[in-house]
Amino acid sequence: MTHVPHELAEEFPDSKDRIHELTQSDAHFAKLSEEYHSVNRQIHRIETNVAPADEGFEKQLRRQRLSLKDQISTYL
To answer: Are 18 and 29 in contact (CB under 8 A)?
Structure first.
C-alpha cells in the first residue's frame, strides 16, 4: 500500500489522540473524518494516475478537502 499524503494524523500531529477520541465519541466528527479520508483517497488516486480525472474535478475535490479540514480543525 502506498503512503497517502494529507492524512489527518499528519495534518494535525499534536491532535492524534483527540482525533481518535472524537472519532469514537462524536458521530458528526466521525462523519467529517470519514468524508475527509474518502476525498483524500480520491485525490491521491488522481495524483498517482490510478484514477485519472479532469482538472476541474480534481480542483473541486481539493476545495472539498480543504473545507473538511477547516471544519475538523474547528473541532480540535
So the answer is: no
Grid cell digits, residue 54: 479532469
Going by C-beta distance under 8 Å and a sequence separation of 6 or more, which residues neighbour residue 2?
A: 44, 48
Q: Tell me the per-residue pLDDT of 22-32, one tens digit each, with 9 for 90 and over.
A: 999 999 999 99
pLDDT at 39: 97
Residue 10's Cβ-count burial label (10 Å; 0-12, 13-18, 19+) is exposed
Instruction: Tell me if the pTM is above 0.85.
Output: yes
The continuous run of DSSP H or E covering 16 comes out as helix 16-25
Each domain of the chain, given as residue ranges in start order, spans 27-75
